[in-house]
Amino acid sequence: MPESIGSMVVKIVIKDPRHLKGIKTSLEEAKLLSGSRDKISRKDGEIEILTNTNDCRTVEANLPGISYRLEQVEVTEHPQTFDQMVRQLLQGVPEDEVERLMQKVPKKWTIYKPMVLFKSGTFDDPVWTKHLSPSFWELLKQTGFFENVTHFAVNKPIIESDVMRRPFNILPLYGDFGPLSSFEEPSDQDFRSAFWCQITQNGIIQTWSPKYTMFSRGNIKEKARILQNYNINPGDWGCDLYAGIGYFTLLYLTRGMKMFCWEINPWSIEGLVRGLQSNKFKYRVVEHQQEYTKQQFSQDEIEGIQAVIFKESNEYSLHRLQELTPAILHINLGLLPSSKPSWQYSAKIRKTSPGYIHIHENVHTTDVDRLKDEIESFFHPGSVQHVEKVKTFAPDVWHITQVKHLRRAPVHQTPATAPTNDHLCPLFSEATRPFPHTSIRFIPPNTVGKGSSR
Fold this sequence. Notes:
Layout: E1 8-14, H1 20-29, E2 40-43, E3 46-50, H2 56-61, E4 69-74, H3 82-89, H4 95-102, E5 109-112, E6 115-119, H5 134-141, E7 151-155, E8 171-174, H6 188-193, E9 197-201, E10 204-208, H7 220-228, E11 237-240, H8 249-254, E12 258-262, H9 266-278, E13 283-287, H10 294-302, E14 307-311, H11 317-324, E15 328-333, H12 343-349, E16 355-364, H13 368-378, E17 382-394, E18 397-406, E19 439-440
Parallel strand pairs: 6-7, 11-12, 11-15, 12-14, 13-14, 15-16, 18-19
Antiparallel strand pairs: 1-3, 1-4, 2-3, 5-6, 7-8, 9-10, 16-18, 17-18
Helix pairs in contact: 11-12
C-alpha cells in the first residue's frame, strides 16, 4: 500500500554514493521504494532514500550488507502520480471502464485559489459523468494534490465574437459557484453572492469571478516586461482602453503611473475595483453619461486618486480626454484577437506629447512584419520599438505585443486612414481571428477605441 500524506515511513541514510544504485534496485524489486518525486536527496554530505513503509525489519531484510542508518520520517509530499491516485479512487469500477476513464484524466491543471481549473476534454467528457459524485471530489481534495482548494471546474474556450470576453462555457464540477446572476446588469447582491478567485503575479493581486470574466495567466511575460522597462515618473498618466480586471492597469499603477480606464463588462469592472482595493490604490468610478469635469479631475489629483474608471465604451474616451486635457504617455490596447477598432481613437488622442502605444494582436507568424509596417504607417510619425511574442494560440499563431514610440506629431497632421476593420462593431474581421496576439507600444497624445473587456 503506497504511503499517504502524514504517515510515517522509513528513511535510509548512507554516506557512500557507490551503494546508492544497489539499494535503489533492491527496494524497487521489493516494491519498497517511495513514489515521491524527492525520494532520493542529499543533505549534509549524506544520501537519503525514502521507502514507502514504516516496517524497519522489512527494509533491513531487503538491504545489501552495507553501512547505513534508518530513520522514521513523516511523509509531507504525495508519493503517487495523479493518474495513480485517480485509479485508486476508481476501485470497484470494471477494469475496461477504468481504462476509458483514464484516457481523459488531465495531465496538468491550473490552480487559482481556491479553484482548480482543468482543460476541456478531461473531466467534462461524457465517460466521466456518472463517476463525478461529490464524494469523488471530497476524496480528491484529501489526496494532497490540491491544498486549500474548495472548487473544481473545466475551462472552455472563450467565444471570440463576444466583445465582453465572458467565459460562458466554464463548467463548474464541484463547489458553490454562486447563483446564476445577470451578466449585463448585476446588482451589489449579485457581486456579494458570486464566487471570486485571486492570484498574485509579480507581487500584484488580481481578482475575478470565473463564471463571468476570464483570466489569462499567459500574459505574465508581457506584464514582467512592462514592470522592468520605461521611465515612468510619479503623476504621469496612461490610458487603458480595454481595462478588464486590470491586467495592465495594475502594472502601470504599480510603476507609479496614474490611469484612465475604460470597460463595459460590469463583472470585469467589479474585479478591477477589488484589485485596486487589494493593492491599496485610490480610485474613482464614473458612470456612463455621468459628468466628470476638469475641475473634478484636478481635485482628484490633489486628493491622490490614482485610477479613474469609466463604465462605458472606449469610443467615448476621446471626448472625455479632450475635456480633461491630460498628457497621456502610455496607451494600452489589449483586446484580442484584434484591437484595430481603437486605432483611430488612439491616433486622435495623440496631440503634441510623445508616448507609447501598446498594441495587442493575434498574428500569424508570416504576418508579423506586415502588421509592423501597417502600424508604422498608421501611427506616423514614430517607430515600432519592440515586438514581443507573448504566447501561442494555434500552430504558427502568436499573441504578439508590438510597442511603438510616437514622436511629436505636427499640429496640422491628420491620422492615416483607419484599417479596413476600423468599424466599431464587430471588433475584428474574420481575417484576424486565426492569428496570434501582437502587442505594440506607440506614443500618441490621445488614443481610444471601442470599450470592451478582456
